[in-house]
Amino acid sequence: MKLLLDENVPRPMAEIVRILLKGHEVAHVHDLKGWAGTKDVELYAMAKAEGFHAVITNDTKQLSRPLEVAAIASSGLHRIEYRQNNKHGGLVGLGTAIATICAGLPHALTELADADGQRLISLNAIDPSRQSRMRITNPTTTPPKFWTGR
Start and end of every VapC45 PIN like domain (predicted)? Predict the structure, then answer.
């Protein structure tokens, strides 16, 4: 499958997706000459003309804008959206985006391989909150089973 990452997807994501999905062709809008800055209304038609099968975006408002919805629908391309919580920037924001794509994209592509028409997919975000991402144990107060001095 030929996948296009929209320009609102962090550029490092393209290389990660290429590494993880070796059987697919992956391009980022910024890697295609003259495509950076293209409005979404034109982007879907261009992507279809270049043989892309799906566009990956984190523009969650795209489906609330009538002209963009019309462009997506008329392109026939699959649209894969992931949500990135704007309050988490930097490394946490990028890590969340990467984790969401890595965890959900293989499932999405399996669904698309069997699809009999256009699909709109929304990947569920990974929760980057501290309490969801790690557990801390103090071995002094709660030692593991074979901890020395237990």
Answer: 1-78
